[in-house]
Design goal:
By secondary structure, this protein is α+β, with helices and mostly antiparallel strands. It has three domains: 11-114, Calycin beta-barrel core domain (Lipocalin, Beta Barrel); 116-197 and 392-461, no CATH class; 201-336, DD-peptidase/beta-lactamase superfamily (Beta-lactamase, 3-Layer(aba) Sandwich). It has helices spanning 111-114, 148-162, 200-214, 225-228, 245-249, 267-273, 288-302, 306-318, 344-355, 368-375, 440-448; strands at residues 15-20, 27-36, 39-48, 51-56, 59-63, 67-72, 77-84, 87-93, 100-101, 104-106, 169-176, 179-185, 195-196, 341-342, 359-360, 363-364, 379-380, 387-388, 393-399, 402-411, 415-420, 425-431. Helix 3 (200-214) crosses helix 8 (306-318). The radius of gyration is 25 Å and the shape is globular. The protein starts with 14 loop residues before the first strand and ends in a 13-residue tail after the last helix.
C-alpha cells in the first residue's frame, strides 16, 4: 500500500470503487482510496456473495485530477484509467497478457460490508443504540435486557465488537433465561443470511450420532471400525483393530490428522487408510477425518446420508428450514468436518437444545443421557484447561474473579455456540476471522461475563 502525491484536487477519487471478477459473477473486487493526513492510501478487497472475502495489497498509487494508476503486486498488474463522474474508465496491463479493459464504478455503500461494522460507525459522533430483538420464532421469546448488569454487558461488549477489537465478527446473539435479549449483525449481514459454521458442523454430527443411538440404529459406541467397514482389511490388523466408534467422537482414534475436505480424493476412503501416529484412545488429535468416517458410519447405520438424517430428525423438529450442506459434498456424502451453512438464530436453537438436555419446545429430541454423555469431558486436549467430549468442547471462561464452565461448539473464524448452564445463558457468534485471531471474542466475552450472573430482584427470571 503506497502513498500518492499531494491531494488537493483528487477528492473525486476518494471512496470505494467496484470492479468485476473475470469469471465469477458472485465475486467482485473493490479499491478503496482514502486520504490520511497529508497522503493518500489505497486498499483492495474481494467480496463473495456480496460479503467480505479477503484483502489484497495495492502499491505505487498515483493520482492527479482526472487520472489514476496503481500496481497490484499479487497480480503483477498495473491499472490505469481516467475519471468521469462516478466511473473510472480504464483497464489492467499484465505481463504476457493482452490489455484487459475494466471500468470501476463508485460504490460507497460498500463500506457497510467491507470496513464499517455498522452504518456510519466510523463517524466520530457514532453511538451504539440497543434495540430489543424482533420475534423470529414463536418458540424463542425475545425481551429487553433483564437487569442493569445485562445492559452493561451488552453496552460494553457490542461497541468493542463494532470497533473491531475482536476481528471481523458478523453476528452476536445472547439468550438468557430463555429469552433472546441481544441480536446484532455486522458488516451487512442480517438474520436471513446463511453463514458457514465451519467445525461447529462437528458438534451437529455429535447430535446426529446421539439420535441414531437413541433410535437403536447405533447400538454400541465400543463397536470397532473393522466391524462397521469389513471391506477394509487393514482395519482388522495391528493398532487399527483397536479403533472404536467412541474414538472418532472423542478425537482419539490415533489417525494422523492429514485431511483436506476440498481435495478431489475419496474423502472417506482416504480418511480410513491414513497412517496411525498414536494408539487408539491414548491421545487427542483434532482431526476432521474422524468426522468424515463418522458420516459414513451414519450412512451405514441409518440407511440415509447424514444431511437427510439431520433434516428429518434434528432440523425439522427444531424448525430449522433454511440451511445448506452442499459445499464439498462428494458422492452424496456431506462434508462432516465443517461445511454446513446455517442461520445464527438456528445455531441458537442448537444451543438451547443442549442447554435443556435434549428438549426443545417441550419435546425430547435427543435423550438426556446422550446430552450428558456427549458434553462431559472424555479427554484432555492440546489446549490447557480445555477438555473434549464427543465432538463438543468443554471450556472454562474466567471472568470477574470467577470461572464459568461452558459447553462449546468451535468453528474456525469465530463460528461459536457457547452454552453456560450456570448462567442459563447461550451466546452465538459468527465471523470472518480467518485473517485474525478466531478466538479473541472469547476473551471479550470473558471480560464481562460475570455481569450476567446477576438476576432479577427476588430471584426472578
Amino acid at each position: 500500500m503506497q502513498h500518492s502525491f499531494a491531494t488537493n484536487d483528487k477528492a473525486g477519487f476518494y471512496g470505494f470503487w467496484e470492479g468485476p471478477h473475470p469469471s465469477e459473477v458472485n465475486k467482485k473486487f473493490y479499491i478503496r482510496i482514502v486520504e490520511l493526513q497529508d497522503s493518500v492510501k489505497a486498499y483492495g478487497f474481494w467480496t463473495k456473495n456480496k460479503f467480505y472475502d479477503s484483502q489484497f495489497a495495492i502499491d505505487r498509487l498515483f493520482l492527479n485530477s482526472d487520472s489514476i494508476r496503481f500496481y497490484i503486486p499479487g497480480w503483477n498488474c498495473y491499472y490505469s484509467g481516467w475519471l468521469a463522474d462516478t466511473i473510472i474508465y480504464g483497464g489492467f496491463s499484465c505481463p504476457d497478457e493482452p490489455y484487459d479493459a475494466v471500468n470501476l464504478v463508485k460504490n460507497n455503500e460498500a463500506a457497510n460490508y467491507l470496513t464499517d461494522a455498522k452504518p456510519d460507525c466510523s463517524n466520530i459522533d457514532y453511538r451504539y443504540q440497543y434495540k430489543q430483538p424482533e420475534l423470529f420464532d414463536e418458540n424463542i421469546p425475545t425481551a429487553r435486557f433483564q437487569t442493569k448488569h445485562d445492559s452493561l454487558f451488552i453496552h460494553s461488549l457490542i461497541p468493542e465488537i463494532i470497533s473491531n477489537q475482536y476481528g471481523r465478527i458478523n453476528s452476536f446473539l445472547l439468550m438468557k433465561n430463555g429469552s433472546l435479549i441481544c441480536e446484532e449483525y455486522f458488516y451487512g449481514y442480517t438474520r436471513d443470511d446463511l453463514h458457514q459454521i465451519e467445525s461447529t458442523t462437528k458438534s451437529i454430527a455429535s447430535l446426529l450420532t446421539g439420535i441414531a443411538k437413541d433410535k437403536g440404529m447405533i447400538s454400541d459406541l465400543n463397536e470397532p471400525l473393522y466391524e462397521i467397514f469389513p471391506e477394509y482389511d487393514h482395519l482388522r490388523k495391528g493398532a487399527y483393530r483397536h479403533i472404536k466408534l467412541s474414538h472418532l467422537l472423542s478425537m482419539t482414534s490415533g489417525f494422523s490428522g492429514e485431511y483436506e475436505p476440498y481435495k478431489d480424493y475419496d474423502r472417506i476412503d482416504y480418511a480410513l487408510k491414513r497412517k496411525l501416529i498414536a494408539p487408539a484412545g491414548s491421545k487427542f488429535i483434532y482431526d476432521g477425518g474422524n468426522t468424515e468416517i463418522l458420516g459414513a458410519v451414519l450412512k451405514r447405520k441409518t440407511g440415509i446420508y447424514a444431511d437427510e438424517f439431520a433434516g428429518k430428525f434434528l432440523f425439522d423438529p427444531l424448525g430449522i428450514i433454511k440451511y445448506d450442506w452442499s459445499v464439498f459434498k462428494q458422492d452424496s456424502f456431506p462434508c462432516m468436518g465443517g461445511s454446513l451453512q446455517m442461520l445464527p438464530t438456528d445455531m441458537l436453537k442448537i444451543g438451547l437444545l443442549v442447554l435443556n438436555n435434549g428438549v426443545y419446545n417441550d419435546k425430547q429430541i435427543i435423550s438426556g443421557d446422550w446430552m450428558a454423555t456427549s458434553t462431559s469431558p472424555k479427554t484432555k486436549t492440546h489446549i490447557k484447561g480445555d477438555d473434549y467430549g464427543y465432538l463438543w468442547w468443554k471450556i472454562s471462561v474466567e471472568s470477574g474473579n470467577r470461572t464459568y464452565s461452558a459447553v462449546w461448539a468451535n468453528g474456525l473464524g469465530s463460528q461459536f455456540i457457547y452454552i453456560f448452564p450456570e448462567l442459563n445463558t447461550i451466546i452465538v457468534t459468527t465471523g470472518h476471522n480467518y485473517e485474525y485471531d478466531s478466538w479473541a471474542i472469547t476473551n471479550g466475552i470473558g471480560k464481562y461475563l460475570y455481569l450476567l450472573e446477576h438476576q432479577l430482584p427476588n430471584g426472578g427470571k
